């Protein structure tokens, strides 16, 4: 309203704490969350260090050339856990987190639909079916990046922690043995296809990632939906980081195969720097979606199991005006509780479908503001 | 203080759907229209109501507050953006929490979509698609001064009352000059609508 004293806004009238008190409450809650997150993150980092020391048989198998990578994973653990704790401490995420885990750990749900959790984990996290519904090309490119990164992480993380070791089966060769925590997993001939694949696993991962990230980079420059509101740090940096890691990684193989190791030391440092910076950046940018995405499984499982508890009439919330189903009763209740946590005093509107909310407002405007829309 | 924004005047809307078609041309969600055009009292009056995202300022973006995935971001200029596709988990919290009934959801794609004030255009000073094509000025893009220069005697409101709660928004509605109270968001606990009982109040299943 222009030119008039504004009426109270935002929170319910009469239920609004004084501004200073509210600011103090928020500040102290934020501080408490930060302290809790720091403690949990520090504990997780210490746990990883202990696991590295024990898994590398008291550092006997630890490759000191890989120290920067191992240190980066410790920082990564701290960052991810800190950010995760802060994230799930917010009201909406906390309630969804609790409901998701309740649904996942419920014995009753497991008996009723034992395949639901593995099926959802495979479709949402592994094959990312929802991305196919957004765009087939994006799905394909994302799958390349996803499986490429997963392969690279599965190879490199245990290597930098000294968990994987490769030892000669005998002095004469060409037999090799792969060991985990010092225990023999399997033996292979270094000249065999399996040997070649093991040594070039990271090259394969790099090719996959370059394919996927290259497509996304092209899209970021050409697609008008993607370019709207894009930011360098959030949208471009992750792609450039993936490409730098992959290209410098491939160049190491190129140097070894065709340049007799020429420039290898420089490339190794360049590769290491790009990996370390990416790992440290991971919790704070776009890459954090890797950690957040499993929430989709929790959310879907929560809704799916709630719906299967009874008939649609019992478990689906019908719009109070038109009767169309809105969501599961459990999901609407969870949302209303979240809204009350956030002092959003209009949670009653959540029991109306979007169209009815608009029509109710239109009717009120028609009868109270501009009678007959005149 | 309102800057350049959309002013909605349902009194001028003729329900022609031009805005709906134009919205589909917006680059940030090409092929999908985000504007809603409703006929609140269909069959009795020709009244129609266009709804774009109101870009709530206080409480700031309830849709973003209830998002468990931190997917809805608000730019420094107060524009509440559609869900970041990287983060959105498709839980529909925003859809059900929005008192204006704005966000849409694609459950298959696990993605929320909504009006982002044609950010690809407005961030470059161009008017949103809907306001560009509206033939009657029901959707006007500009400043309050520009609106009032064209339409003497009108005022605008960014206050909407939902029960006891008042929500203030970045997008405004045109109100009569003498009006000083928030625009009502509607009355709940309806027993009947347009002469017919609502579900739970004797409506036929």
What are the SSEs and their pairings?
The complex is a heterodimer of chains A (374) and B (205).
Chain A: H1 19-55, H2 67-89, H3 91-105, H4 107-112, H5 116-126, H6 129-134, H7 136-160, E1 164-168, E2 175-180, E3 183-189, H8 193-199, H9 201-222, H10 224-227, H11 232-258, H12 264-281, H13 289-292, H14 294-308, H15 312-315, E4 316-318, E5 325-328, H16 329-341, H17 354-369
Antiparallel strand pairs in A: 1-2, 2-3, 4-5
Helix pairs in contact in A: 1-2, 2-12, 3-14, 3-16, 5-14, 7-9, 9-11, 11-12
Chain B: E1 5-8, H1 18-24, E2 36-38, E3 49-51, E4 56-58, H2 62-65, H3 93-97, E5 104-106, E6 111-113, H4 119-122, H5 129-133, E7 139-142, H6 144-150, E8 154-162, E9 165-176, E10 183-184, E11 192-193, E12 196-197
Provide structural commentary.
- Chain B: Pfam families: Fer4_11, Fer4_2.
- Chain B: It comes from Kitasatospora phosalacinea.
- Chain B: One of its GO terms (molecular function) is 4 iron, 4 sulfur cluster binding.
- The complex is a heterodimer of chains A (374) and B (205).
- Helix content of chain A is 68%, strand content 7%.
- Chain A is mostly helical.
- Among the domains of chain A are: 21-89; 310-373, no CATH class.
- Chain B is globular, with a radius of gyration of 17 Å.
- Chain B has a domain at 53-114: Alpha-Beta Plaits (2-Layer Sandwich), CATH 3.30.70.20.
- In chain B, a hairpin with a 2-residue loop joins strand 8 and strand 9.
- The interface between A and B is large, with 82 and 88 residues.
Distance between the termini of chain A: 19 Å
Tell me the span between the first and last alpha carbons of chain B: 48 Å
Write down the secondary-structure element order of chain B. EHEEEHHEEHHEHEEEEE
* Second CATH tier, the architecture of the domain at 53-114 in chain B: 2-Layer Sandwich
Please give the share of residues in helix of chain A: 55-70%
User: What is the typical, i.e. mean, pLDDT of chain B?
Assistant: 90
* Broad shape of chain B: globular
